Amino acid sequence: MNDLSNKPCIICVAITGSLPTKANNPAVPISIAEQIESTHAAFEAGATIAHCHVRDDEGKPTSDPDRFAQLKEGLEKHCHGMIVQLSTGGRSGAGQARGGMLPLRPDMASLSVGSNNFPTRVYENPPDLVDWLAGEMKAHGVMPEIEAFDLSHILKARDMWDKGQLATRPYVQFVMGVKNAMPADRDVFEYYIKTVHRLFGTDAPWCAAGIGPAQIVLNEWAVSMGGHARTGLEDNVRLDKDRLAPSNAALVARVVDLCGKYNRPVADWRTARAILGLRAA
Ligand SMILES: [Zn+2]
Question: What's the CA gap between 10 and 178, in Å, rounded?
Answer without folding.
Answer: 22
